[in-house]
Design goal:
- It is elongated, with a radius of gyration of 61 Å.
- Among the domains are: 207 residues, no CATH class; 161 residues, no CATH class.
- The termini are far apart.
- α4 runs antiparallel to α5, α6 runs antiparallel to α13 and α8 packs across α11.
- Strands 1-4-5 form a three-stranded antiparallel β-sheet. The protein has a three-stranded mixed β-sheet with strand order 2-6-3.
- The longest helix is centred in the middle third of the chain and has 138 residues.
- It is mainly alpha-helical and 549 residues long.
Amino acid sequence: MGCLGRIRKRLKGHSCRKKKIKPCKESHPPNVSRLGELQSSVPSAVAPQELQRTSGRAPRMHPYQERNHSVVTVHHQTTGQESRLIREKNELRTQLQQKTDEGVRIKGDRDEKRRKDEEIQDWIRRQWQLQQRDNAGRDAKRELELRNERMKETLRQKDAEIAQMKESMDATERLPKIGSQRQHQAEHNLRQSMEISEKEATRALKEKNDLTQKINTLQKELATKDERMGNDKKQTEAILQQKERELDSLRTALGTENQHLRTQVESLTAERDSLQTTIDSLKAERESIRQQYTEVKAVAENFQYRLSNEFCIRLASDETNMENISVKHRPAKIAEKFAQIESKEWVEAKEVLDERFDDEKTNIQILLFMLKFACKCAQQVFDGFLSSEACRLYNPVATTTDILLTEQNQNSGGSPRVPGSILKEITAFLKGTCGDCDIESLMQSVVDKMKEVHGDDIAPILQDTHVRSFVQACCRLSWQMAVQQPPLTVLTSNTHYDDKCHQLWYNSPPPSKSKGVSRDEIDYYIWPELRHSDKVLKKGRVCLKPIPR
């Protein structure tokens, strides 16, 4: 057997050796499925085709490649275990944070405190398990370091074998030229094997350095997380002690309050018994008083009904005796509206007329005519309503034909006599609707009358917003005045000044200072008097004639 044969035999024997890897000292079996996934995801260090011989035999893994493959497998196993440990540690930290939040919300229940204690014990057990797993990771790291030392030792042995083979090759140089070709081929294969071994050794060393750096980083992170978890545990224990002290104080306070409440309940029970006796006597007295009240109420209701009927009849015939404040459109409110129109709508409409006509007196008379004509039309509408509808309500059978209605109007002087009760219902209905009813027809009558008296020159003025607002206010007020009983009227027929009925215009001459009946004559009315029968509700505004000297 030559030198080349011995080299082949040694390589063959080395490839048949098996590396014995000690199992990781863990309390739980390794995750085989996860390791399989990691091994499948790592590419092989050297392609098998590079070691395939030209003789056509099946490819066989090189010893250095087999060694590198085992190192990569162990490295990925360790990395997978550390990743799993980190995930479990994060999960335990999340659970610890949740339990800490639950401990803050403890309100002093003993059962809840016991449950929290059990959770803390469980957390301590999990922490212990985590510590055990950390210890297992450290053991795996030490095992990895031992394997690296063994690999270095193996590399040194191979280097020694390579040196011996070089010496053998030097000795074979003296052999005949027949074996020189085989020797060159063996040297070439040996160089390739050495280059591959050096590359694998360099790669393994680099991976080892990376793994060492990662392990150091993980150790630092584990130390930081352990410190944080210790701080969180201390805070949780402090909060639990504080809540326990609060629970003890609350129990003491509740015991004192319960004793006080029992005393109050006993006193209230005695008081309730005494009050019940008083209530029984008062109920008997109430029944007797209720019976007396029922008898008196029946008499009072009968008297009130007779008095109300009599009062309604009198009030419907003349509302000046007493004013019902529950009616929205009563004479007092109409008087306020009468004065408001003079101070607002009348002033705005007069300004529009003053811009068109220069004569102030003529403008005032135009506005006064609008108001007086609106009152006249409203009264005619109300009288017509009584003549047509009120008679049908009073005697519907006899008024079904126009002939009977005409005879009745002639016998009553043109205005039917309506009983007080029916007249009251009619006026009450009209008073309720006079503020919202449609007055367009009444406004149109005033506009047509103004065009008839003053011609088409006044038509543009009647279209003005302020003038139209004045006409609308006058028509609304006139209808509210007409539905009263008796109706409200405007008066401009007095010829002499009376301070009880009149007010002076701003540019009117002053009245005479003589005592007795005033002899001052009225030149013209600016705003009429408002009267309810003989009662003056609002004074009229007048301008006196100048006193001759």
